[in-house]
Automatic annotation (TrEMBL), chain A:
Allows the formation of correctly charged Asn-tRNA(Asn) or Gln-tRNA(Gln) through the transamidation of misacylated Asp-tRNA(Asn) or Glu-tRNA(Gln) in organisms which lack either or both of asparaginyl-tRNA or glutaminyl-tRNA synthetases. The reaction takes place in the presence of glutamine and ATP through an activated phospho-Asp-tRNA(Asn) or phospho-Glu-tRNA(Gln). Keywords: ATP-binding, Ligase, Nucleotide-binding, Protein biosynthesis, Transferase. Its EC number is 6.3.5.-. One of its GO terms (molecular function) is transferase activity. This is Aspartyl/glutamyl-tRNA(Asn/Gln) amidotransferase subunit C.
Automatic annotation (TrEMBL), chain B:
Belongs to the GatB/GatE family. GatB subfamily. It is an enzyme of class 6 (ligase). PROSITE patterns: GATB. Keywords: ATP-binding, Ligase, Nucleotide-binding, Protein biosynthesis, Transferase. It comes from the Bacteria. It catalyses: L-glutamyl-tRNA(Gln) + L-glutamine + ATP + H2O = L-glutaminyl-tRNA(Gln) + L-glutamate + ADP + phosphate + H(+); L-aspartyl-tRNA(Asn) + L-glutamine + ATP + H2O = L-asparaginyl-tRNA(Asn) + L-glutamate + ADP + phosphate + 2 H(+). Heterotrimer of A, B and C subunits. This is Aspartyl/glutamyl-tRNA(Asn/Gln) amidotransferase subunit B. The lineage of its organism: Bacteria, Bacillati, Bacillota, Bacilli, Lactobacillales.
Length: 102, 476
């Protein structure tokens, strides 16, 4: 797969990031070399080999439906990382556009 | 030129669990913002999701109730997107191997039965809720982040808005009676997205589709589809073409409004979720769940009307919610006469719930108490007038009707040795009434019954009193 400046711009848009032209040039090169290295894997013959979704040696790990309330300090600690809050809400710059979700 | 419409529906149901799908945070409606969250919902570094077994169980119930094929192996996938309602920047969903596929439901539209296919259904997590302010900020509440959802994707089998409406009604009723979801559109526990395309009759390939999201009611679904069908026809007839786009329904004007045009497919970069092991759904487990599956609304209707002889209208009122139907079934199981129980449910119980704006689950009335009270009426222990008082006490305070009636001395007076002298006396005291009765004035009896009721403080059995009075008056 070839990484072009357009690929980098596309990924940046998806991630809601903005880069200068210089940065885009630099990232194109860096991403290109990473992808090229990974591309070596394409040379392995995987004909007839089932896709690996998981590498852990277990499956069907369930939890019972029991609610646990986080109270007091634990709960307040969660809000400590919030840059701005209002009435218990997390305050963020308004973004009406959402890429097609919900 | 004639056009054919093709409609598909995507319906999200919030599954009724006590805790979230991947974290043990509680799930409830209306909690204070961000209080029902923990480190997993906030996507703190190092946390790992763990699947709530009940989410699968409820999903499997719906799959069974819609004749869907449950996949023996499923796994979760990541759908990547950046938006402040989801701190992980991806939604965990089932993209490659959904819970179930190839189901169907049967609807009846324009007098014809039609089978509408369900393409697939999968379980996934909901995102937090964003409230947009007018001051350039949005306010995020992560309580909803991680609430389990079941998304049911129909085949594009519907050809007009009426079919879409019928499909939704039926699907809601099916899911409601599995008990898997509250199916309340106003509370967001059921959400509907639609898509519609049209094509000239005879053309095989489908037209470009338009999506509509966040529709508030079934009626909006029907109206927006009808509007969109016409709009697209006019566009095509005037030589235009339909844009791949999302539109929104404007309630005030009844029109659909362009929200945004889509340029190419969305790029969610789905990949298998590495933090959750694949799940194997055994046939034994499916069989176990099938045994627990509650009776459907349609089976219940059949029982009510054909077995119990309840009027179709009353049966439908009982079947408006699973709670009221379950309550009724339990009252009948406790020995209540079905017709009387249905009447009490649909008039007194519903009246009380509406007046006090509460749900059946919130009141202290039990099916056993309702059954007991109905038995007291039937065996003549209390009059139906007194029953209303007993009912008011029982539903408000959970008092045992039988005990209450005994303690308050409300037992109906049917004893002839007490009533007969009273009747003789009241007729003696009111010669005018005897005259009126002989002249065919029925009201005369009513007056005398009233007198007896007054003397017994409403405890006299009206049937017995009527009988005695008739006898006495006729003999004069």
């Amino acid at each position: 797969m070839e990484i072009t400046e357009d690929t980098v711009k596309h990924v940046a848009t998806l991630s809601r990031l903005e880069f200068s032209d210089d940065e885009i040039g630099k990232f194109t090169e860096q991403m290109g070399s990473i992808i090229n290295m990974a591309s070596q894997l394409q040379e392995v013959d995987t004909e007839g080999v089932e896709e690996t979704v998981q590498v852990v040696d277990r499956d069907t790990v369930f939890r019972e439906d029991k609610p646990e309330h986080w109270q007091g300090e634990d709960r307040e600690t969660l809000m400590e990382n919030v840059p701005e809050k209002a009435n218990g809400f997390i305050k963020v710059p308004v973004i009406i556009e959402k890429d097609d979700n919900e | 030129m004639n056009f054919k419409s093709t409609i598909g529906l995507e319906v999200h149901f919030e599954l009724k669990t006590k805790s979230k799908i991947f974290s043990p945070s509680p799930v409830s409606y209306g909690a204070k913002p961000n209080t029902e969250t923990n480190v997993i919902d906030w996507a703190m570094p190092g946390v790992l999701p763990m699947v709530n077994k009940n989410v699968y169980r409820l999903g499997i119930m719906v799959a069974l109730a819609t004749h869907a094929h449950i996949l023996p192996t499923t796994h979760f996938d990541r759908k990547n997107y950046f938006y402040p309602d989801n701190p992980k920047a991806y939604q965990i969903t089932q993209f490659f191997q959904p819970l179930a596929c190839d189901g169907y439901i049967e609807v009846e539209v324009h007098g014809k039965k039609k089978r509408i296919g369900i393409h697939e259904m999968h379980i996934e997590e909901d995102a937090g809720k964003n409230t947009h302010g007018t001051n350039g900020f949005s306010y995020v509440d992560l309580n909803r982040q991680g609430v389990p959802l079941l998304e049911v994707v129909s085949e594009p089998d519907m050809e007009d808005p009426e079919e879409a409406y019928a499909y939704l009604e039926k699907l809601r009723k099916i899911v409601q009676f599995t008990g898997a979801s509250d199916v309340k559109m106003e509370e967001g526990s059921m959400r509907v997205d639609t898509n519609i395309s049209i094509r000239p009759a005879g053309q095989k390939e489908l037209g470009t589709k338009v999506e509509m999201k966040n529709l508030n009611s079934f009626d909006h679904v029907r109206r927006s589809l009808a509007y969109e069908q016409k709009r697209q026809e006019q566009v095509l007839l005037s030589g235009g073409h339909i844009q791949l786009s999302t539109r929104r329904f404007d309630e005030a004007t009844g029109k659909t409004v362009l929200e945004r045009v889509k340029e190419g497919a969305s790029d969610y970069r789905y990949f298998p979720e590495p933090d959750i092991a694949p799940d194997h759904i055994s046939q034994e487990w499916i069989d176990e769940i099938a045994k627990e599956l509650p009776k459907s609304a349609f089976e219940r209707y059949d029982d009510y009307v054909n077995k119990f002889g309840i009027k179709p209208y009353d049966a439908n009122v009982l079947l408006q919610t699973k709670e009221s139907s379950d309550f009724f079934d339990a009252a009948v199981a406790a020995g209540a006469d079905p017709t009387l129980a249905a009447n009490w449910m649909n008039t007194q119980v519903n009246g009380y719930l509406n007046d006090n704006r509460v749900n059946l689950a919130d009141v202290k009335l039990t099916p056993e108490h309702l059954a007991e009270m109905i038995k007291l009426i039937q065996d003549g222990t209390i009059s139906s007038k007194i029953a209303k008082k007993v009912f008011a006490e029982t539903i408000a305070n959970g008092t045992d009707p039988k005990k209450y009636v005994e303690e308050k001395g409300m037992v109906q007076l049917s004893d002839l040795s007490v009533l007969e002298p009273m009747v003789t006396k009241v007729v003696d005291d009111n010669p005018q009434s005897v005259e009126d009765f002989k002249n065919g004035k029925d009201r005369a009896i009513g007056f005398l019954v009233g007198q007896i009721m007054k003397q017994t403080r409403g405890k006299a059995n009206p049937k017995v009193v009527n009988k005695l009075l008739n006898k006495e008056l006729a003999s004069r």
